[in-house]
Amino acid sequence: MPAQLLSQPNPPPDPSHIPDSILSLRVDVPKNVLSSNELDSIRRFRRAADYIAAAMIFLKSNTLVEEPIKPDDIKHRLLGHWGTCPGLVLVYAHLNAIITRTNLNSLLVVGPGHGAPAILACLWLENSLATFWPKYTRDRQGLSALIRGFSVPGGFPSHINAETPGSIHEGGELGYALSVSFGAVMDKPDLVVCCVVGDGEAESGPTATAWHAYKYIDPAESGAVLPIVHVNGFKISERTIYGCMDDKELTALFVGYGYQPRFVEELNDIDQDLASSMQWALDEIHKIQKAARSGNPIVKPRWPVLILRTPKGWSTIKSLHGEYIEGSFRSHQVPLPEAKNDPEERKMLQAWLESYKPSEVLPNGEPSEEVLSIIPKEDKLKLGQKKEAYAAYEPIDVPAWIDHGVKKGTQESCMKVVGKFLNLVTHSNPTSFRIFSPDELVSNKLDAVLEDADSGRNFQWDPASRAKGGRVIEILSEHTCQGMLQGYTLTGRTGLFPSYEAFLGIVHTMMVQYSKFVKMAHETTWRQPVGSLNYLETSTWARQEHNGFSHQNPAFIGAVLDLKPSLARVYLPPDANCFLSTVAHCLRAKDYVNLMVGSKQPTPVWLSPEEADRHCIAGASIWKFASTDDGLEPDVVLVGIGVEVTFEVIAAAALLRKLVPQLRVRVVNVTDLMILGPQGSHPHALEDTDWDALFTGDGESDGKGRRYIHFNYHGYPVELKGLLFGRQGLERVTIEGYREEGTTTTALDMMLQNHTSRYHVAAAAIRGGAKVNKKVEVDAHEMISYVMHLAQKDREYIYANDPEGTFDVPKFD
Amino acid sequence: MPAQLLSQPNPPPDPSHIPDSILSLRVDVPKNVLSSNELDSIRRFRRAADYIAAAMIFLKSNTLVEEPIKPDDIKHRLLGHWGTCPGLVLVYAHLNAIITRTNLNSLLVVGPGHGAPAILACLWLENSLATFWPKYTRDRQGLSALIRGFSVPGGFPSHINAETPGSIHEGGELGYALSVSFGAVMDKPDLVVCCVVGDGEAESGPTATAWHAYKYIDPAESGAVLPIVHVNGFKISERTIYGCMDDKELTALFVGYGYQPRFVEELNDIDQDLASSMQWALDEIHKIQKAARSGNPIVKPRWPVLILRTPKGWSTIKSLHGEYIEGSFRSHQVPLPEAKNDPEERKMLQAWLESYKPSEVLPNGEPSEEVLSIIPKEDKLKLGQKKEAYAAYEPIDVPAWIDHGVKKGTQESCMKVVGKFLNLVTHSNPTSFRIFSPDELVSNKLDAVLEDADSGRNFQWDPASRAKGGRVIEILSEHTCQGMLQGYTLTGRTGLFPSYEAFLGIVHTMMVQYSKFVKMAHETTWRQPVGSLNYLETSTWARQEHNGFSHQNPAFIGAVLDLKPSLARVYLPPDANCFLSTVAHCLRAKDYVNLMVGSKQPTPVWLSPEEADRHCIAGASIWKFASTDDGLEPDVVLVGIGVEVTFEVIAAAALLRKLVPQLRVRVVNVTDLMILGPQGSHPHALEDTDWDALFTGDGESDGKGRRYIHFNYHGYPVELKGLLFGRQGLERVTIEGYREEGTTTTALDMMLQNHTSRYHVAAAAIRGGAKVNKKVEVDAHEMISYVMHLAQKDREYIYANDPEGTFDVPKFD
User: Fold this and answer.
1) Beta bridge pairs of residue A713
2) Topology of B36-390 in CATH?
3) CATH code for residues A36-376
4) Which family does the record assign (chains A, B) (predicted)?
5) A513 touching chain B per CB within 8 A
6) CA A715 to chain centre
7) CA atoms of B98 and A33, how far apart (whole Å)
8) Which residues, in sequence order, are CB contacts of B781 under 8 Å at separation 6+?
9) Measured between alpha carbons, how far is B7 from A179 in angstroms, rounded to an integer?
10) Is residue A595 within 8 angstroms of chain B, CB to CB?
11) Would you call A296 an interface residue with chain B, using a CB distance cutoff of 8 Å?
């Protein structure tokens, strides 16, 4: 480990007891790629960018430090993360150099997204900023605006986000840069995504497993990721794990992950070192790709990885008040926090900023010729202006689902039917549609997509599926699936993430971060729409047969409900035709987060394809066949939202017709959850009059008195309550849903345990009906007792006999 | 790779291009540990347990296959996961043998928690099942009950859970077994947790980084984890990554993670192989521990790991309908799915079950002497009866917080004050309290806990903090923090997980799984209470200075609201004294999930310690000092829930007093969110009369007319809406909260953007007040315009001047 890293007064880490022989697996390369002109330009580019990045954190005037810095030149609040900036600038400079030299088609994904100043500085230098944000012109005025405006209200925020040209990754929550990069290169054979992974981020679980993602990249059809692990040794206030691992440990680890590691750490000659290392890495990538594309794929190719060791906050002040700053966690954010008030710190700031010689590299606030010379000449090659990052949407070709609908009155597994349809979608979109799943396609009964070799799995390390061009990635890491889906989607393609219902929550915060990116993309003038994030939840709590309580968690619905209404879409299609319609719609829809929830077991097909089409367009409708008198003038409205709970509503209606024929029942199914919220709260929210037409009004305005409404909901009741809040007359509404009760048991027992069974629905209906219909009131109490007695008898039957577990349980007349 | 693994008709994986020299890092050990008696006993134990596990999946009668299996002997639904069972039995048998031989103090944590039949079979054999579940006696009747009852309603579920004696880990969602194991051994120097990690689970991110957890284990003070990676090559329907990695790749990977890998794969001699390997591993562990405990710690010790390669579903049928079953994903769940109806499958089942010779190892349904001979004699040594797993709670000594309260009227950072208090807690509980944090203690201003060496960090790979006995683990992996916290808590100690608010959602589903475990533990008669899972969220959306939109996500509150009311606790203490009171309470409370949300910036101390004490006990109270006329007979009630939003409520009340003195305002602060839900919905939910006393009644019963209530809430409004649903008179309630708007800006601007500012509160108050107070109605419209004009002026000021960002913004009179 180079001495420069050891700025803390600590002994160097003792050597691990791994034999030295492992060190022979480090890659060595001759360091001679750059001409002296290139070398000089790179160094000047770095000085210019480092200067701008540092100035952004501190200055609001005197932005070129042409005069001594006064307290008033310094911002009120010093915000930003310096520590990672010099490393990001270094990588950017070299990526520029290699693009200029080779016309490389590249994107940069920045794991340490806190380092926005570095990236914004580089984007300004290459004039990509002004392309999208006209006020940041590449001149004195634009530079001043950039420096002044950073991290203050109205300026660029302190993290990379959708406002940052060239970015495809929200820079905040750590762990996902690598999987996003892998998703981005899929089906883009010429693209090389350079991905910087910080050594803080490297500690996260999602990153730790994403290194395996190359095992799912077919070099014949897809591009490549060039990972650069930036080991600067420290997190916010502590050493990193990678920072404490020596060469032997890191070499072994990356060899094990399947890479050839190259350490880049010659601080005295870092530019030649990095340039040669990057060239070597690209050569390796091309070698692997060429072999695959000429029909002689290398088995288990060892892809390159660069381990870049530079000091944290490299080039800032060395120490302050006797404590190390450069090369320590103290340079993570603002190295001179009291610069505004402390004359000594201000003087140090002056010296630090002047050390970059801004007048030389930014004469009169414009980049010098030498700085410009390593920036790609063509805009389309510049990292900040790649169409892949902001205008790459390829519309998906979705076959007419209605031709593949199933017959009304049969029993069909929604997933079996959807799986066949998805198989068609893969054929219609051979290079722009993929499915990412944590090894659950078969279990989720979507395996029809695996039927053909060309829509099957693509797992390079497995001899059985290697290099078959399959459209399916199955890795038992929801994080990797989600990251790949994001990268694939943001670069213009369409994906689908099927999952066990209980486990999508694993990527809850990733989904939120992504939606933040899309929300901000909407607020720019220049980012084009992309496909939606499409989630398909099945194996729900209502039918967990091989599993139990741990597989019961419908909370992802709530996660989507928290999103901006402009993005959030939640569907619970009640049968196979409705599910087909929903999938077809979601795959075509742009910029949403679409969550579809349904059953994998055969369930009744209630609606014909045409009826399903109309039902899904409406979002909800009265199901006349299950209602009394087609649902006219009801005493109670019974609402099913979800497959099994709707089945129970229909069973309840049948039961009521027999037991309490005087009760007037309307059955409603809601397939689009978003119709429910108060008028105006969501684009899909029903107008009050439409809501009243469906669920009945509150009885005051129309003089009809109160009608009762019982919701039998698939999710947590609290979500539905929150959604309905603001609709009038909620006193007449009761709601049941999943209440965290369950085990390995039958489907009906799950309903009984969670009070969503036909009996509970019927009891709720009688309870409500009794309040508005005197004929019901007469023996309501007795009827409710009887219904709950039926429930008890069913429960006893189930516990005594462990029946098949379908919904066809015996009747007790 | 042994040929037996290659049951698929595929070529073996081609060798990777890693030099063969890496193979010298595999550990070799002589295979001669077991006497022939022991060997025989182990084999018989395995046959007995494998038999029982297989029978559990299929049989409801004829449970000892004493007669030909008839269709009626077979369960209606065949549920369960056979694939992992033989491997789990193998490990259990050998752990038994080594405990019997050495009195090892051990727990078993089973990553492949789907393999409940294996573990339940072993627990029955050692008579631990009957100890806790009397009906499963170790005799013919008990065995029959176990086999019949598995995976049917009322019996054991198909996954390991809290009902499984000896377990400390919910077996369903994969990825956490390893980090839980590391948490369990902390501060238990003699404990060795054997942790089985499946090769499916190994693909998950949380597992992929948890391998680094040894870097945080001080062998002087803590026990050890013996990880056994069970590579059976397949997931549900696909090969695993580890299953496709050859010896060189796996060796390099684990050496890189810091281990000495030993491959256990001699299928013809697996028992000697595993026994010798386990003995070697324990010897290595003891060597490392002995060195550390004698004051000569080994730097970077290389801990042992066993890589156990056995075929999936080993010992089941070889093939069916021409397809491989054993050694393939087809044995993942039920190898003979049609056994009930297909005579051929039934015959194969018979042969398979008889292959274990049940009459020999389970004569008359009781384990034979030979089987019993490798089970530990003493109950306290049996894996199913370890007190650590069910009765180990050590009450925590929490100092009287009130002595450390701060002065009313000052400004204090809640976190600074709490940090000092936590420092005291660490001193009072030197071996039973730990803090787990993703490198955010300093940033969250809780760094007082790091002030003393003995309460500081404990990071063995960092020379600066190594072996100092620190109570703090900081790893940038929320998953690892959470897993360690769970393991530490479930084995009787108390932990705290401070986090940035936005990032706790990363462990949302882990927290849910844990709460499922605790819920089921409550339902047993024998599991004793444990400490609570304590979360402290700070760096909230309301004050994100160095960060921005990506750091704004209060959704973890909603995650806790979805839990069973018996577990869920959410607190938003409004000042430092309230926070102290809350922390002290939570650390002492048992069996809850406690979420505390607060600010790290200095904010007013509204209440004296004594007042805070009363306020926190009540959960909410009227803040007379901020109300008109002490809050008597209000027109409107303004409710603050959360630090900054409460500040805005108070600022609004002050503004209203000046602008609209005729408006009668009551200010309420809610510190315990759970008081809000309808009476009876939660143990803390206020009785209706108390609710009315605080927030006013709906005006009908008391004839006082409607009063308006405006909630200014820290979280997503939809959560609060869901919580309030069911309280009467919600038409008079308005709610604002975080609405997914924000960037890097000032605190007041965050309030403005999310409509939680003083101006928005004031406008809501005037709007409500105008409906009930004619004197307010007169110029309400004008006043609202004026207030919103003030908001606009503040916003302009902020955007023009980027002020400090505190709440002391200029007034515009």
Assistant:
1) A641
2) Rossmann fold (3.40.50)
3) 3.40.50.970
4) Belongs to the XFP family.
5) yes
6) 22
7) 59
8) none
9) 32
10) no
11) no
State the CATH class of domain A401-604. Answer: alpha beta
For chain A, where do the domains classified as CATH 3.40.50.970 start and end? 36-376, 401-604
Whether residues B235 and A209 touch (CB distance < 8 A) is answered with: no
Residue A544 pLDDT exceeds 80: no
Q: Per this entry, what is the length of chain B?
A: 813
Query: What stretch(es) of chain B map to CATH 3.40.50.970?
Result: 36-390, 401-604
Find out whether A761 and A555 touch, Cβ atoms under 8 Å: no
pLDDT tens for B429-477 read 999 999 999 988 888 888 888 887 666 889 999 876 665 678 999 999 9
Q: How far apart are the C-alpha atoms of B680 and B677, rounded to whole Å?
A: 8
Beta strands in A156-205 (DSSP E): 191-198
Give the minimum alpha-carbon distance from A240 to chain B in angstroms, rounded to a whole number.
8
Q: Which two tokens stand for residue B167?
A: 């377990």
Q: Which residues, including other chains, have CB under 8 Å from residue B369's CB and lie 6 or more apart? A: none
Pairing type for strands B620-622 and B636-641 reads unpaired
Structure tokens at B132: 């806790």
Q: What is the 3-state secondary structure (H, E, C) of B550-617?
A: HHCCCCHHHHHHCCCCCCEEEECCCCHHHHHHHHHHHHHCECCEEEEECCCCEEECCCCHHHHHHHHH
What does the alpha-carbon distance between residue A80 and residue A56 come to, in Å, rounded to a whole number? 8
pLDDT at A480 over 60: yes
Q: Which positions in chain A touch B744 (Cβ < 8 Å)?
A: 79, 151-152, 157-159
Is the full-model pTM beyond 0.95? Answer: yes
Give the tokens for residue B703.
């004839």
Among candidate residues B320, B299, B761, B753, the one with its CA nearest the CA of residue B549: B753
Q: Given a cut of 90, is residue B1 above it in pLDDT?
A: no
Q: A23-78: per-residue pLDDT in tens?
A: 999 999 999 899 999 999 999 999 999 999 999 999 999 999 999 999 999 998 99
pLDDT at residue B675, rounded to an integer: 98
CATH architecture of A619-801: 3-Layer(aba) Sandwich (3.40)
A261-270, A573-582, B113-122, B698-707, range with the lowest pLDDT: B698-707
A407 Cβ contact partners less than 8 Å away, ≥ 6 residues apart: A605, A608
Among A239, A125, A225, A233, CA closest to A179: A225
d(C-alpha B584, C-alpha B564), whole Å = 23
ipTM exceeding 0.90?
yes
Asked if B476 is an interface residue toward chain A (Cβ–Cβ < 8 A), one would say yes
A203 to B209: CB separation less than 8 angstroms, yes or no: yes
Q: Determine the Cα–Cα distance for residues B427 and B404; give it in Å rounded to an integer.
A: 15
User: Residue ranges of the alpha helices (H) in A470-608?
Assistant: 478-490, 508-523, 556-561, 576-588
| A522-561 residues touching B, CB cutoff 8 A | 545-551, 553, 555, 558-559, 561
Q: What is the largest CA-CA distance in chain A?
A: 98
The average pLDDT across A399-408 equals: 96
Which range among A631-635, A700-704, B244-248, B399-403 shows the weakest confidence by mean pLDDT?
A: A700-704
CATH number of this structure's domain B621-801: 3.40.50.920
User: Confidence class of residue A806 from pLDDT cuts 50, 70 and 90?
Assistant: low
- Paired with A108 in beta bridges are A194
Q: How many residues does chain A have?
A: 813
The 8-class DSSP code of residue B219 comes to T
- Tens-digit pLDDT profile for residues B755-811: 999 999 999 999 999 999 999 999 999 999 999 999 999 999 989 887 765 555 333
Q: What is the DSSP letter of A384?
A: G
Based on DSSP, count helices (H) and strands (E) in chain B, helices before strands: 27, 20
Whether residue A297 contacts residue A305, with contact meaning beta carbons closer than 8 Å, is answered with: no
CATH 3.40.50.920 intervals, chain A: 619-801
